Amino acid sequence: MSELGSAVPVAVLTAAVLHAVWNGLAHRIPDKLVGFTLINLTYTACALVLVAVNPLPAAAAWPYLLASTVVQTISTVLLLRAYQLGDFGQMYPIARGSAPLLVAVLSVTVLGQHLGTGELVGVVVISCGLIGLAFSQGIPGRAQLPALAAAAGTGVMIAGYTVLDGSGVRHAGTVGGYVAWLFLLQGPTLVLVVWARRGRTLLAGAGRVLPLGIAGGVLSLTAYGLVVWAQSRGSLATVAALRETSIVIAALIATVVFRERLGRLRLTAALTVLGGIAVLELARP
Q1: What pTM value is reported for the model?
Q2: DSSP for 100-161?
Q3: Confidence tier at 72 by pLDDT (50, 70, 90)
Q4: Range of 202's domain?
């Protein structure tokens, strides 16, 4: 395997760890509106610096950037709602677990990318493991349906912006510039949406959780920057599947930090995800 080929999965798996950690930080903040606002303000500030030191994306990339901004904003609002209504250990895997198969279907049917048999098997195995993690506590009751709908909707949006950004960055001519402008456009958009709902009281008492918000923002930008770089060089379906291994990390965070029960089924599902990763790596040319 070439050095570049080895770098792609390493970058995506690193992003998966960072993504699970920043989501855990966001869930730990009691007021989710405040938490997501601080995270977005932080990566907006970081994006301002990155915009100044990176080239401007090519004109062909801007429709993707604008569309992704809208889709990612909707995704974040839905994820915020899911965290308000449900447990981290269930909402996170549902949100993330529904994306790989959708991305695989879209990358083949819309973008015309080819998946080998081994890659397809790996994506399916990982997705089955993720579904097992999502429903490891049994079939949800009616009271959980709003939370599940928000989490599932997040998964659909994740698949959408994964395809948009995977295509857009290939038109941009600059990975750094694409990521910088994406976060610069997205960050203030969500803050304005949340501000419209809460008003001037939004950041009242935010000082107590400011370190968590700043850490979450830096980790969020770094994680997605690594993913976009990987998308510019690898198969979208493979990158998306490897990225969702963050659910394994999230399961550990849910157990250790939020004291949620791991259980035999959740452990089996996590091992299934790892098995899918092995299949994907063996299938890589």
Answers
A1: 0.80
A2: HHHHHHHHHHTS-----HHHHHHHHHHHHHHHHHHTTT-S--GGGHHHHHHHHHHHHHHHHH
A3: very high
A4: 3-283
